[in-house]
Sequence to fold (951 residues):
Amino acid sequence: MNSSVIVFPGSNCDRDIAVALKKMQFKNQMIWHKETKLPKSDLIVIPGGFSYGDYLRSGAIAGKSNIINEVIKAANNGCLVLGICNGFQILTETGLLKGVLLRNENLKFINKDVNVKVMNNETRFTKKYKKNQILKINIAHNEGNYFTSQNHLKELHDKNLISFKYCNDKGNIDEESNPNGSLENIAGIFNAKKNILGMMPHPERMIDSLISNSDGINLFSSLLN
Amino acid sequence: MNISSKIIEQHGLKPDEFVSIKKLLKREPNLLELGIFSAMWNEHCSYKSSRKHLKNLPTKGKQVIQGPGENAGVIDIGDDDAIIFKIESHNHPSYIEPYQGAATGVGGILRDVFTMGARPIALLNSIHFGEPKHFKTKSLLNGVVSGIGGYGNCIGIPTVAGETKFNKTYNENILVNAMAVGHAKKDRIFYSKAKGINKSVVYVGSKTGRDGIHGASMASAEFDENTEEKKPTVQVGDPFTEKLLMEACLELMKDNSIISIQDMGAAGLTSSSVEMASKGGLGIELNLEKVPCREENMTPYEMMLSESQERMLIILEDGKEKHAKEIFNKWDLDFNIIGKTTNTNMLTLKFNNKIEGEIPIEALASKAPIYDRKWVKKKITKKNINLKTYKKVGIKESLIKILSSANHSDKSWITNQYDQMVMCDTVQKSGADAAIIRIHGKDKAIAVSVDSSANYCKSHPLTGGKQIVCENWRNLISVGARPIAITNCLNFGNPENSEIMGEFAECLIGIKEACEFLNYPVVSGNVSFYNGTNKKNISPTPVIGGVGLISNFKKKISHLLKKENSAILLVGKTFGHLGQSVFLEEVYSINEGKPPEVNMLNEKNNGETVLEIIKNDLVNSVHDVSNGGLLVSLAEMSINSGYGIKINKPKKLTNLIEYFFGEDQGRYVLEIDNDNLEKVDKILKNNNIFYENIGFTQKEFFEIKDEMKINIIELSKINNQWYNNF
Fold:
């Protein structure tokens, strides 16, 4: 399976995702933001980091970059697109995903391992997980507080477009287990066609139990076939 | 222009130093030249008060590739891998503007490491604030932590370890020390020494602005009531540009284009160009109109003294200019050839073809003043601690008081603001004795820790200096690493005061003795004097950053208890030394007595034996016994793992407070499976090491038999309350 990782100036999880994709046997290429053509890809990944420094709104400038037009074209043609952390923020800036990522409720950067629940396991991204499976995944962000309109929220529910929600270790989705103030504890969402996933937690950090755990592996193996 | 005595004073130069300048130049300097002397001759850049003492430190060793004198120290960790690391202070700027001060501290130390060809793999910090109730403490803490995180998180290098301390000695002069650790291939290390004449001198990175002018001079003076006015001397950090600069430099370093490279740190363009020329025994000519400027009408004086961040100076091999320019253009960075190397041994500064200043390089470097400042020895206090003279306290209430104090509380509030996982090689995060970072793609890992103990150093600098090296060494041992080398950040008061100079000289003797005995050389470091306000100096605070090697990271060990019913051993002898202890400080709010004695022989023997036990897979967890004594170490093991402990009272009649809170050195707590006890006993006895079997692990309760019992969840709440109430 061919994958492309988009590298913006300021991306800093690009190597981590490349390592994960390689470990999972993807044929991966790194694509510099100034490129105007994408190689043929089955999966496009927009990695975490601080694209263009994120001095404006997170992801705002990346959402207007050269390469992003190609990503939008590919996504509209059904290519799988995964945006992690800053990648999720960028996807909301392009409009490929609806909603916004506001500053964390406590106004601080948060890095820790959190529990998330698999809300929909019938997608190309999550089919190797069990429904309601609880994963422990690392988050690291300033702006992960997901918010969207009532109409869109209804659509997310009606079409089962919420991929992950923050929960506690028993799987309860409550206020205490919400690290950043996200609406309904949302940690990740799909677009209506479910070929695009944006998520704040970093699955590429969870592929080696000697370093962390292997809860991220099934996301990549789901994509493989 | 005539140089008045007021101008000289404003440049932080003493009248006799001005006389020396005139002698060296054989004329009066102009204002630009005076500014350059001021930048190079201040304490921060010239080490004029410390150099005499620093040269006594052991800096060589089998694994040392590069000791002090370069941008950072370099050690050999086997195969073709080298580790490059250094610690540096950013105290004064962080007090004036905590966010930017701390952020640029991180940026500066990162440049020191990637300038030498290393990809940074870990950041550490040691931060000291005034007492918790001081009105500035919380806002400074908040700003510094956000600044450290803001820079490290954005550039994408994990912040993996550190220490945070509170003490009234820092009420008006906080300490912010940042350490960076990088990895390079042994044969791809870059130095600052210039070679060859007529080589292009290239400026890369951010544009030059008017920020940070005279920053290094500011850092070389005490604070006074006008400190707030110094805000413009603090630089503004741009981690995004630094990320680009780092990637561009590392890309250019893949081939042989670079002759020498130096970051523009303190004293910016001045110190970088002088350093390169002086090391190479050459001259350097700069055409200042070619310097990329952020602001209009900048004068040569401003350009030479600006401390704008994220800039580098590179000397390129002939014909590599185009290739280098392409790389920096790709990363959208400025690239300009601003001068060339010469054989004149002069720093020649031209602006639109007119010579604006000309100074012999050696006048700025080797001929800079060196002072043999007067210093006096500290007398060790005769006062012994007699508990009977204080109000009686219980063990449990004392433990609770310590664990709920700002100094000993759980620091997750801080560490959760740092990305500790980016790069995916963090094997062990902060909260342990040392952090562990895997060498990317390999089984080996390095362990890193930073430590300080100002109370000990204040009471008796020589013992304190020795102790802090030992504690750092012990922390690396406790995670199963073989300690290799250290970097040090020496934070002291005004060196013109003979008592302060004495603290410095004696701390260094202590550091030297310990480093020599442990074969633990100093490979890099930084001196920060003039920490104080209006003649009130801080306690001497040398900070030690150590690096050790773990050959297989799968064999790492931590202080987290692993199971119930394993035995708890205390290695090393307990005398119950309470002088300068955490117990006295937190329970009675006093700092009295002398620091605990450091017995180097026991320290080394105990440490090496514990390492042997770890290497033989005979131990479940290890924790060193340091500040707070045995009971605090045990409580940390319990709280962080969730397993309880039941401790027996010592058999011999001993004062329990002394036994549980005494801070005797060279001790470790080991959790051992009962099946392994015999083997461990044999190793300890073979090495003539004193140890006690003091109890065992259990479920949910932290307990001393017939004395106290407390649920771990409750203990953990106590340990978290200070930051939760922040």
